[in-house]
């Protein structure tokens, strides 16, 4: 990943925080059919130096062959992002030498996938994924709410993926390369125009 030093994020807790908050990631593999990329929700677990990613997919999924091949996969987690207008920079009024840009935060993780053909494992992963998102609701839905035979049939059509993270990189491009006044101008612009509250929170936290 191309990343200037000003934008590099290396704190594992911060990287994991983005991955947990934005679990729908792009899984990228290279196999006999070439490069393939698909969106997939992941759960993050402790283990190894950088953590372990888990997910599930259909047995007939076109990416399964590449995952079974043992080649390293790339998983891209996209966090907050927003367009930045030059109108927010005080320096625009001073000299006009400004252009639009895009602020964003992202994490790239790499590791070799392991396929798990185990209905008990897959159910546990699905239950964790479900509970993570249903837990915020007043009346959370649970996997056990569905009929047992229905869930059993669904599980037969799925396999699990476990990816021990070999390497992990983070890029937080949140106007660190601008003068302090311009960076504050972006924060003020996001707040006053009430756009992209997640990016506003990200910038205010750094």
Explain what the structure shows.
Helix content is 33%, strand content 33%. The protein is an alpha+beta fold. The protein has one domain (5-83, 102-177): Pnp Oxidase, Chain A, CATH 2.30.110.10. The chain has a 6-stranded antiparallel sheet. A 4-stranded antiparallel sheet has the order 4-5-9-8. A hairpin with a 6-residue loop joins β4 (43-45) and β5. The two termini are 22 Å apart.
Shape: elongated
What share of the residues lie within helices? 25-40%
What letter string, H or E per element, gives the SSE order? EHEEEEHEHEEHHEEHH
CATH superfamily: Electron Transport, Fmn-binding Protein, Chain A
Taking all Cα atoms into account, the compactness measure Rg is 20 Å
Number of helices: 7
CATH class: Mainly Beta
Number of domains: 1
At CATH level 2, the architecture is: Roll
Instruction: Characterize the main sheet.
Output: 6 strands, antiparallel
Could you tell me the strand content as a percent range? 25-35%
**CATH fold field value:** Pnp Oxidase, Chain A
N- and C-termini, Cα separation: 22 Å
Defining traits:
206 residues; alpha+beta; Pnp Oxidase, Chain A; 6-stranded antiparallel β-sheet; 4-stranded antiparallel β-sheet; 33% helix; FMN-binding negative transcriptional regulator; TR_PAI2-type
Helices and strands in order:
Blueprint: E1 8-9, H1 12-21, E2 24-31, E3 34-41, E4 43-45, E5 52-58, H2 64-68, E6 73-84, H3 90-94, E7 101-111, E8 114-116, H4 119-134, H5 148-156, E9 158-164, E10 167-173, H6 180-193, H7 197-205
Antiparallel strand pairs: 1-10, 2-3, 2-6, 4-5, 5-9, 6-7, 7-10, 8-9
Protein name: FMN-binding negative transcriptional regulator
InterPro entries: Split_barrel_FMN-bd, TR_PAI2-type
Pfam families: FMN_bind_2
């Amino acid at each position: 990943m191309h990343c200037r030093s000003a934008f590099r994020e290396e704190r594992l807790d911060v990287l994991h925080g983005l991955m947990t908050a934005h679990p729908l990631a792009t899984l990228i593999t290279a196999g006999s059919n070439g490069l393939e990329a698909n969106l997939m929700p992941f759960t993050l677990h402790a283990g190894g130096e950088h953590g372990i990613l888990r997910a599930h997919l259909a047995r007939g999924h076109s990416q399964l062959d590449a995952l079974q091949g043992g080649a390293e996969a790339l998983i891209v987690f996209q966090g907050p992002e927003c367009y930045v207008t030059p109108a927010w920079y005080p320096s625009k009024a001073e000299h006009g030498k400004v252009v639009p840009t895009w602020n964003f935060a992202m994490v790239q993780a790499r590791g070799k996938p392991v396929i798990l053909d185990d209905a008990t494992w897959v159910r546990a992963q699905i239950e964790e994924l479900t509970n993570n998102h249903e837990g915020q609701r007043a009346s959370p839905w649970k996997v056990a709410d569905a009929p047992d035979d229905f869930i059993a049939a669904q599980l037969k059509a799925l396999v699990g993926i476990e990816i021990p993270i070999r390497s992990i990189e983070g890029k937080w491009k949140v106007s660190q390369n601008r003068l302090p006044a311009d960076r504050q101008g972006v924060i003020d612009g996001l707040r006053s125009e009430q756009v992209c509250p997640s990016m506003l929170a990200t910038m205010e936290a750094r």
